[in-house]
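hiii so um. not sure if this is the right channel but i have a protein structure encoded as C-alpha coordinates and i wanna go backwards to a sequence. like what aa goes where. can anyone help
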Protein backbone atom coordinates (compact mmCIF):
# COMPACT_ATOMS: atom_id res chain seq x y z
CA UNK A 1 0.00 0.00 0.00
CA UNK A 2 1.19 3.51 -0.82
CA UNK A 3 0.39 6.18 1.76
CA UNK A 4 -0.39 9.74 0.69
CA UNK A 5 -0.31 13.02 2.56
CA UNK A 6 -3.48 15.11 2.60
CA UNK A 7 -4.79 18.47 3.74
CA UNK A 8 -8.18 19.35 5.24
CA UNK A 9 -10.33 22.20 3.99
CA UNK A 10 -11.62 24.57 6.66
CA UNK A 11 -15.41 24.95 6.93
CA UNK A 12 -16.51 27.30 4.15
CA UNK A 13 -20.16 27.86 5.17
CA UNK A 14 -22.19 28.15 8.35
CA UNK A 15 -23.62 24.86 9.57
CA UNK A 16 -27.34 24.47 10.26
CA UNK A 17 -29.04 21.49 11.88
CA UNK A 18 -32.67 20.66 11.22
CA UNK A 19 -34.64 18.24 13.41
CA UNK A 20 -37.76 17.29 11.50
CA UNK A 21 -40.69 15.03 12.27
CA UNK A 22 -40.68 11.44 11.14
CA UNK A 23 -44.06 12.17 9.52
CA UNK A 24 -42.94 15.37 7.74
CA UNK A 25 -42.71 14.89 3.97
CA UNK A 26 -42.18 18.52 2.98
CA UNK A 27 -39.60 20.62 4.81
CA UNK A 28 -36.57 18.54 3.85
CA UNK A 29 -37.22 19.43 0.21
CA UNK A 30 -38.15 23.08 0.75
CA UNK A 31 -35.68 24.31 3.35
CA UNK A 32 -32.36 24.25 1.39
CA UNK A 33 -33.72 26.53 -1.33
CA UNK A 34 -34.85 29.05 1.27
CA UNK A 35 -31.30 29.50 2.57
CA UNK A 36 -30.02 29.58 -1.03
CA UNK A 37 -27.12 27.21 -0.51
CA UNK A 38 -25.38 29.65 1.83
CA UNK A 39 -25.20 27.12 4.66
CA UNK A 40 -24.54 23.43 5.05
CA UNK A 41 -27.79 21.80 6.22
CA UNK A 42 -27.75 18.59 8.25
CA UNK A 43 -31.04 16.79 8.90
CA UNK A 44 -32.14 14.51 11.71
CA UNK A 45 -35.60 13.09 12.39
CA UNK A 46 -37.57 12.70 15.59
CA UNK A 47 -40.29 10.04 16.04
CA UNK A 48 -43.78 11.51 15.69
CA UNK A 49 -47.34 10.25 15.56
CA UNK A 50 -49.35 9.71 12.41
CA UNK A 51 -51.99 12.01 13.87
CA UNK A 52 -51.30 15.37 15.47
CA UNK A 53 -52.70 15.69 18.99
CA UNK A 54 -51.40 17.41 22.10
CA UNK A 55 -50.38 14.01 23.46
CA UNK A 56 -48.32 13.02 20.41
CA UNK A 57 -46.75 16.47 20.31
CA UNK A 58 -45.85 16.42 23.98
CA UNK A 59 -44.28 12.96 23.62
CA UNK A 60 -41.67 14.33 21.24
CA UNK A 61 -39.90 16.10 24.10
CA UNK A 62 -38.56 12.76 25.31
CA UNK A 63 -37.13 11.94 21.89
CA UNK A 64 -35.52 15.29 21.06
CA UNK A 65 -32.17 14.61 22.77
CA UNK A 66 -31.71 11.38 20.82
CA UNK A 67 -32.58 13.13 17.56
CA UNK A 68 -30.06 15.89 18.28
CA UNK A 69 -27.50 13.28 19.28
CA UNK A 70 -27.26 11.67 15.84
CA UNK A 71 -25.92 14.71 14.03
CA UNK A 72 -22.32 14.21 12.83
CA UNK A 73 -20.09 13.60 15.84
CA UNK A 74 -18.02 16.63 16.74
CA UNK A 75 -19.98 18.97 14.48
CA UNK A 76 -20.32 22.54 15.71
CA UNK A 77 -23.53 24.19 14.55
CA UNK A 78 -24.33 27.84 14.10
CA UNK A 79 -28.00 27.09 14.68
CA UNK A 80 -30.23 24.05 15.14
CA UNK A 81 -33.94 24.24 14.41
CA UNK A 82 -36.68 21.96 15.73
CA UNK A 83 -39.04 22.00 12.78
CA UNK A 84 -42.46 21.55 14.35
CA UNK A 85 -44.71 24.54 15.01
CA UNK A 86 -47.32 22.73 17.05
CA UNK A 87 -44.71 20.69 18.89
CA UNK A 88 -42.87 23.83 19.95
CA UNK A 89 -46.13 25.40 21.11
CA UNK A 90 -46.82 22.39 23.36
CA UNK A 91 -43.30 21.65 24.63
CA UNK A 92 -42.27 25.31 24.84
CA UNK A 93 -39.44 27.05 23.00
CA UNK A 94 -37.28 27.34 26.12
CA UNK A 95 -37.59 23.62 26.86
CA UNK A 96 -36.84 22.74 23.22
CA UNK A 97 -33.64 24.81 23.37
CA UNK A 98 -32.66 23.19 26.66
CA UNK A 99 -33.17 19.64 25.39
CA UNK A 100 -31.24 20.18 22.16
CA UNK A 101 -28.51 22.35 23.65
CA UNK A 102 -27.71 19.71 26.27
CA UNK A 103 -26.74 17.24 23.54
CA UNK A 104 -25.55 19.17 20.48
CA UNK A 105 -22.85 21.83 20.24
CA UNK A 106 -24.62 24.83 18.76
CA UNK A 107 -24.52 28.59 19.08
CA UNK A 108 -28.31 28.86 18.93
CA UNK A 109 -31.52 26.83 18.92
CA UNK A 110 -34.82 27.93 17.45
CA UNK A 111 -38.18 26.59 16.28
CA UNK A 112 -41.08 27.87 14.15
CA UNK A 113 -42.90 29.50 17.07
CA UNK A 114 -39.84 31.44 18.21
CA UNK A 115 -39.15 32.27 14.56
CA UNK A 116 -42.68 33.53 13.93
CA UNK A 117 -42.50 35.81 16.95
CA UNK A 118 -39.17 37.19 15.74
CA UNK A 119 -40.51 37.62 12.20
CA UNK A 120 -43.54 39.54 13.47
CA UNK A 121 -41.22 41.84 15.38
CA UNK A 122 -39.07 42.41 12.28
CA UNK A 123 -42.15 43.21 10.18
CA UNK A 124 -43.72 45.26 13.01
CA UNK A 125 -46.98 43.30 12.90
CA UNK A 126 -49.07 42.23 15.89
CA UNK A 127 -52.36 41.03 14.41
CA UNK A 128 -52.32 37.92 12.25
CA UNK A 129 -54.67 35.83 10.19
CA UNK A 130 -53.68 32.27 11.05
CA UNK A 131 -54.25 29.36 8.69
CA UNK A 132 -53.68 25.93 10.24
CA UNK A 133 -54.21 22.43 8.91
CA UNK A 134 -54.94 21.02 12.35
CA UNK A 135 -57.86 20.32 14.67
CA UNK A 136 -58.95 22.93 17.20
CA UNK A 137 -57.15 21.61 20.29
CA UNK A 138 -53.79 21.86 18.53
CA UNK A 139 -54.41 25.18 16.79
CA UNK A 140 -55.82 26.83 19.92
CA UNK A 141 -52.65 25.99 21.81
CA UNK A 142 -50.53 27.77 19.20
CA UNK A 143 -52.80 30.81 19.30
CA UNK A 144 -52.46 30.97 23.08
CA UNK A 145 -48.66 30.86 22.88
CA UNK A 146 -48.63 33.64 20.30
CA UNK A 147 -50.96 35.70 22.49
CA UNK A 148 -48.52 35.33 25.38
CA UNK A 149 -45.93 36.97 23.10
CA UNK A 150 -48.26 39.87 22.34
CA UNK A 151 -49.38 38.60 18.93
CA UNK A 152 -53.12 38.45 18.31
CA UNK A 153 -54.81 36.04 15.91
CA UNK A 154 -58.31 37.55 15.61
CA UNK A 155 -58.82 35.77 12.28
CA UNK A 156 -58.36 32.01 12.21
CA UNK A 157 -59.07 29.25 9.72
CA UNK A 158 -58.28 25.55 9.57
CA UNK A 159 -58.56 22.54 7.28
CA UNK A 160 -59.32 20.45 10.41
CA UNK A 161 -56.97 17.64 9.44
CA UNK A 162 -55.31 15.38 12.01
CA UNK A 163 -53.34 13.05 9.70
CA UNK A 164 -49.88 14.26 8.67
CA UNK A 165 -50.02 12.32 5.40
CA UNK A 166 -53.02 14.41 4.33
CA UNK A 167 -51.45 17.67 5.48
CA UNK A 168 -48.50 17.09 3.15
CA UNK A 169 -50.87 16.78 0.19
CA UNK A 170 -53.08 19.83 0.61
CA UNK A 171 -52.72 21.43 -2.80
CA UNK A 172 -51.56 24.94 -3.67
CA UNK A 173 -54.96 26.27 -4.86
CA UNK A 174 -56.54 25.24 -1.54
CA UNK A 175 -53.81 26.98 0.43
CA UNK A 176 -53.92 30.15 -1.64
CA UNK A 177 -57.71 30.38 -1.59
CA UNK A 178 -57.90 29.95 2.18
CA UNK A 179 -55.02 32.33 2.92
CA UNK A 180 -56.42 35.09 0.69
CA UNK A 181 -59.89 34.70 2.19
CA UNK A 182 -58.51 35.18 5.70
CA UNK A 183 -56.33 38.11 4.62
CA UNK A 184 -59.35 40.13 3.51
CA UNK A 185 -60.21 40.94 7.11
CA UNK A 186 -59.12 44.52 7.79
CA UNK A 187 -58.10 43.72 11.36
CA UNK A 188 -55.03 41.73 10.34
CA UNK A 189 -51.64 42.97 9.20
CA UNK A 190 -50.19 39.69 7.92
CA UNK A 191 -51.05 36.07 7.17
CA UNK A 192 -49.43 32.97 8.68
CA UNK A 193 -49.59 29.47 7.19
CA UNK A 194 -48.72 27.26 10.12
CA UNK A 195 -47.04 23.83 9.76
CA UNK A 196 -43.75 22.76 8.18
CA UNK A 197 -45.52 19.91 6.40
CA UNK A 198 -47.56 22.29 4.22
CA UNK A 199 -46.13 22.88 0.74
CA UNK A 200 -45.78 26.65 0.88
CA UNK A 201 -42.39 27.64 -0.56
CA UNK A 202 -43.53 28.43 -4.08
CA UNK A 203 -46.82 30.18 -3.29
CA UNK A 204 -45.82 32.81 -0.74
CA UNK A 205 -45.01 35.55 -3.24
CA UNK A 206 -48.27 35.00 -5.13
CA UNK A 207 -50.34 35.16 -1.95
CA UNK A 208 -48.56 38.37 -0.94
CA UNK A 209 -49.28 39.85 -4.36
CA UNK A 210 -52.96 38.88 -4.19
CA UNK A 211 -53.67 40.02 -0.65
CA UNK A 212 -51.25 42.93 -0.34
CA UNK A 213 -50.02 41.80 3.08
CA UNK A 214 -46.90 39.99 4.29
CA UNK A 215 -47.16 36.21 4.36
CA UNK A 216 -45.28 34.05 6.84
CA UNK A 217 -45.04 30.28 6.84
CA UNK A 218 -43.57 27.96 9.44
CA UNK A 219 -40.80 26.73 7.15
CA UNK A 220 -39.97 30.13 5.68
CA UNK A 221 -39.88 31.88 9.07
CA UNK A 222 -37.73 29.10 10.51
CA UNK A 223 -35.26 29.35 7.61
CA UNK A 224 -35.13 33.14 7.98
CA UNK A 225 -34.56 33.00 11.73
CA UNK A 226 -31.91 30.29 11.49
CA UNK A 227 -30.13 32.28 8.81
CA UNK A 228 -30.16 35.36 11.01
CA UNK A 229 -28.88 33.44 14.04
CA UNK A 230 -26.10 31.98 11.89
CA UNK A 231 -25.07 35.44 10.70
CA UNK A 232 -26.08 34.99 7.07
CA UNK A 233 -26.85 38.13 5.04
CA UNK A 234 -30.37 38.96 3.90
CA UNK A 235 -31.95 36.39 1.60
CA UNK A 236 -34.11 36.72 -1.52
CA UNK A 237 -37.57 38.22 -1.11
CA UNK A 238 -38.95 35.85 -3.76
CA UNK A 239 -39.97 33.61 -0.87
CA UNK A 240 -41.71 36.41 1.03
CA UNK A 241 -40.97 39.87 2.37
CA UNK A 242 -39.51 38.58 5.61
CA UNK A 243 -36.62 36.85 3.84
CA UNK A 244 -35.03 40.17 2.91
CA UNK A 245 -35.16 41.44 6.50
CA UNK A 246 -31.71 41.61 8.09
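sure thing!! here u go:
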Amino acid sequence: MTGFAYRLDPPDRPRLGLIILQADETIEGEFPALVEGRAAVHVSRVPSGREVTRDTLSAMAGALPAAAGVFPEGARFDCIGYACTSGASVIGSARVAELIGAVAETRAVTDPVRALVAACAALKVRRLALLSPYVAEVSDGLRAVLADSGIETPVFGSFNVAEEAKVARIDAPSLMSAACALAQDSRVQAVVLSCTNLRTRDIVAEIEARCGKPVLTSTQALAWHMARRAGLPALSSRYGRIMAQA
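oh and The chain has a mean pLDDT of 95.
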